[in-house]
Amino acid sequence: MLKENKKKFIIAGLIILFVVTVFLAGFIGSLISATYPNWSAKLSFLPGFLKPKVAVSTNTETTIRTVEESAVISAVKKSSPAVVSIVAQGASLNPQTGSNQQGIGTGFIVRSNGVILTNSHVVSDGTINYKVVTKDEKTYDVKKIDQDPSIDFAILKIDASSLPTVDLGDSDSILVGQKVIAIGNALGMLQNTVTVGVVSGVGRGVTASDSLSVSQETLENVIQTDAALNPGNSGGPLLDLSAKVIGINFATTSGAENIGFVIPINRIKSVLEQYLSVGRIIRPYLGIRSQMINQAAAALYGVPQGAYIQDVISGSPADKAGLQDGDIITKFGGTSLKDNISLVGILGKFKVGQTVALEVWREGQTIKLKATLAEVPH
């Protein structure tokens, strides 16, 4: 008799626990549905059946979605009107026309008067007239292009007003495993394509390519994501679940799946502020053409790692500092040029007019020089 009562007591207790659990799940869902994702991280420990759901009602039925699904849908709805396609003059978004697709990419509007951010390799061909196509299929001529190739970044200006915009987030606060959203003109034909993934890694180094797959400079400290990025996605935004831009999509990896790279948005904020203040991007200029020597090449040729100078431009800061063809810059401003740290990447951290100390390898000797940086000639 005692055992039967104990068994009944246990069953009753389990029933009560189940009812309380269901009640708490519903209560938590209603509590955070309006404030996700701020609360979501605090509830990540909950098992699947306890994770809150959001009811979405229509005229005919009610759809149940997870908070994460609702957050993605909300972020896309909020941000996608500000995502644009960048098209070369004469190219078409219609895949049936077979017209020239060179230079097609993605951008996003950050000021309602027509200031658009994208990659420099998307608009690198100075012989092409570019146009911008908005989500509502309005077309604008690109009136002005400012570029900073050192971080594969460009600012476009179109004549417009009252355009939708996106908000810029904080890329320094992102975490590996964080859910992210990419929006872009996939394959140059599929406007505002949405893909979802996670932050796969931070602090990566990768070499970007332009629309013709010509290698550009290596970029350091970029974000890696498994959100699908395709040709045409370059220049589009990577968003967090609050619909804030945390990066600019710029590269994929051939021969691999779900490996894309993104420029952290914090790296371009100061450049954007400068542009908005003075009307152009001001970049420091050394005045050399160079090629980075990696560890393998250094061991093969018996030289140090660094930036091998192929050509010194006459009258440039490099020329005035005494740099010569064939020199290898091993240190720039106290930073060693090795292990994926390129000269272009370091140069972008200095200002016009600043004097920088250099260490140069020349015919087996280390020479110390100083160069005063000028503004990139226009």
UniProtKB/TrEMBL annotation:
The keyword Transmembrane helix applies. SMART domains: PDZ (SM00228). The chain crosses the membrane at residues 9-32. GO terms for molecular function: serine-type endopeptidase activity. GO terms for biological process: proteolysis. PANTHER family: PEPTIDASE S12, PROTEASE DO-LIKE 8, CHLOROPLASTIC. This is PDZ domain-containing protein. It comes from Candidatus Woykebacteria bacterium RBG_13_40_15. The lineage of its organism: Bacteria, Candidatus Woykeibacteriota.
